[in-house]
Amino acid sequence: MIKYPDYDNSILSIVSSILKFYGYDNGRKTLKILDYKLKKNYNNVLLMLFDGMGYYTLKEYLDSEKFLMKHLVGGISSVCPSTTACAIPTVESGMSPIEHGWLGWSMYFKEYDANICVLKNTYQDTGKKIKDENVARKYINYENIFTKIEKVTNGKVKSHDVSLYSDTNEFVYNYNQLLRKITEISKNGQSNFIYAYSEEPDIIMHSVGVEHEDVKENIRFLNSMVDELAKNLEDTLIIITADHGLLNCSTEYLTDYPKITKMLKRKPSFESRAVNFFVKDEYVEEFKDEFNKMFKDKFLLLSKKEVMEKELFGTGKVNSKINDFIGDYIAFGISDVAIDWKNDGVNLLARHAGLTEKEMTVPLIIIDTNKI
What we know:
- With 372 residues, this protein is of the alpha/beta class.
- The chain has 16 helices and 18 strands.
């Protein structure tokens, strides 16, 4: 079943509610339940994002009496593509993907005539680091919500990014550091907005698949960790969600389909389940027929025009780089198949970025520490 993004009930809506609470209007719909909770005017607001902790995985591995499940409000929408490289900029900017422009793991930058892995700042083909500049930050940078919150509150609220990739220089590298840092910030005598990001359980699921016992143990550990954390925080509203879910996938390789590869200007970009194709002019119509002949039941192939008309990347002011990034077609996964260029020996058992319910639905968990 295809699940399109619902940006009015999504991870973007969470951020919109938080920004509204602090007095910043990003022009987006908010979540009424979260707006209601925030009316209590907590001293600390903590937004925790666990990479890959999809709504359906959470429900499968945690019984109803577990801490996270007791505070589960329901499922909300991820963004499109349902992937970290798109979702995290949405959360960190309070903007839709069409506005911030971060649309996938790798994107074509004409300035380099190459696909660049935007989170790692490396060339897709070689993995070589780009040393002179951060390409994505140069061409599609955005003002983050940490700056927005501090500006709109005139510095009365201190914002913190507690993660491996901190924008506020508050880096943490494991769960123990994460717990200590959040607890330390909450007791600093100020009003705080804290954003905390964890790469798990995404990494484990990529490696061993969604149904492995290690994934179950990791989810249960996260449940216990949040339970412990919540008991140590005072006057704090904890909001927990994810960037996407995952599902187990087999992989097809485009090099096994020479009729398709000969029609392409360059290697595809974005993701293995949101595959972005730049097609040679003479093959634009033929490509559609050939791709659908091979993958019609596995992928939904949409033209650039169709993607924009369906507003899959949301609404708002279109980023000036969007036309550079979006090819002639994007193929979105609707089954349990991924597409890579060739078999390079890397075998990811679970994937994301497609338009299935498991990938697109993430949890909304709200915890009032004053009631624990």
